[in-house]
Predict the structure.
Amino acid sequence: MDSWTLLLEGFATALQPQYLVFAFLGVLLGTAVGVLPGIGPAMTVALLLPLTYTLEPAAALITFAGIYYGGMYGGSTTSILLNTPGESASIVTAIEGNKMAKMGKGAAALATAAIGSFIAGTIATVGLTLLAPVLARFAVNLGPADYVALIVIAFITVGALLGSSVSRGMVSLGVGLFMGLVGTEILSGQQRYTMGLLPLADGIDVVLVAVGLFAVGETLYVAARLRHGPIKLIPVARGWRSWMTREDWRRSWKPWLRGSAIGFPIGTIPAGGADVATFLSYAAERKLSKNKSEFGHGAIEGVAGPEAANNAAAAGVLVPLLTLGLPTTATAAIIITAFQSYGIQPGPQLFTNQPALVWALVASLYIGNVILLVLNLPLVGMWVKLLQIPRPYLYAGILMFAAFGAFALNFATIDILILLIIGVLGYFMRRYGYPVAPLVVGMILGPMGEAQLRRALQISQGDLSALVTSPFAAGAYGVLALLIVGGLWLKRRQRRYELALTESIAVPIKADSEVV
Amino acid sequence: MTSGALGMEPETVGADESRSPRTRDSVPVGELLFALFMLALGLFALIGVFGIRVPAGAQVGPTVFPIMVSVILIGASLAVLVGLFRGHRAAPEEGEDIDENLSTDWWTLLKIVALVVAHLLLLEYIGWAPAAAILFGGVAWTLGAKRWWMALSVGLVLALAIQIVFGGLLGLSLPWGPLFGWLGGFF
């Protein structure tokens, strides 16, 4: 098969010693930064973006693949070992993994998360290898109206489904779209919303928005209500033997596979990304487990399944990203920015125009997964040390690195000011419950959507009905309606479920059927 | 826990709006102001449309998309406002290092913002590394680092490391400044 030869060539590139070093560094840095408390995958990727500025495209992409997977995995270590409530995104892993660690089975929780991530990541990357070229071939034939449909889907699902409030999500999306408008418009060369200010004529750099919202906004948000006092860590038994017993393996392998099967498809559709996949996997494991009573008290299946689903979804997100150029999560939006800064435009043409680069990237995803596994288990001690960094120093470091990233864009201090303003906006958005992810996605997709919309309307001579009459577009809007209804139903269920789960820590679960 | 107990929680009421069970009677001034600010941004976007010059003969001009964006912004922020008046409060984000029982420390926030502004004003005069060290040391001290000189020296070491690796070895043009100009001469 053709794509296999190309994949082998990709491996030939990615396995060259210098690229292996970049992959290794990417995974190491991604995990190290991802482990740091308060830093999610999106922030990891945004913060480490400046590191790749100076590299050539292939090396930068390979490093970036490592950072992406490392950052995805790093978060679970935090929630297992840190004795404070984690981000709500990883709440299910946090609950089960944290309970396991408290029972002295922290090493087993970390191991099942690491091995599960490896297996799921590998399966999902195989899925990506098989699906992406097919989808890209199909996508080449899509017209502007079809793209408008896809982008509208992405807008609405991201705005409505990321975050807890639909109206706030749409506001966030609107702000992102507005920021995307600022600057000189490409087709007619008109300035929009620049207020005559020169730094705004080129538009607001997406990197500033991502780093500002995630790094500066988060730092300000934490700084306002920083938890003082000693950092409570759960000690983990050291040594190879204590990792996973035969029983742990027996109970983990099915959740790993199920998690992969749930995570990958969910990642490929714009339905809220890894959160939803994690939650669905947890619910499935709970329903299927023979040890239902252990759930909420440290069931290994509740770590193995969701962690696998999380990583599989991370790979799934890359499918629409690479083949259609559509980011469906904030992390994906930042990755698109990274691609663009190397002069690469993801989309159906990518597979035909730059096959060597794409397949080197896919190959480095496989390699990154292996490195992740090899690196993570022996280095648990180091991650534990990272978790103990005094918080004042940690957040001072994040802020310094964010300012560095902003300045390194154009070596203009005005960029640091824009970063700060966006950071303050990010602070208030967090404070008042506005999700920031739709903003980033809207800012990336806005200009793309506008270009496709105008192209579509130009072809149809201004006839609006052309936007919905192509069979693909019409089908897409139908799917959109289903996605929204299904997604909102899932969100509602997830919220009830998590609420029930949080309560179940205090009160023993009486009957499983009442929770689900 | 039973489903009855679940139903009593206000959290489960709306599918689209989450309600926080706490402080529902007081007027959420901050939330209102922010929602109004978002509404103002939408109005600004809409008014700004009239300032965009449409080239003659353009079938779909540069104003079409901005109008759509303004409508989304205005509509969504109106929905948030209506929700607020009907008692739908936001659920603020949670985090590992956040103590939810603390009230917002505005003074700390102000100091951090001032430090970032100081950093960007200073960096071209005193060099990137010293300016970054001041930012690092200042923020760490503001957040409760015990010894200010320790925070400052850690910041300086880190900043110099970044400047040497990225400025010196990888060629990003970070200003060295008068203090470390001699160091820049090595690269």
Chain A has one domain: 2-507. The longest strand of chain A covers residues 183-184.
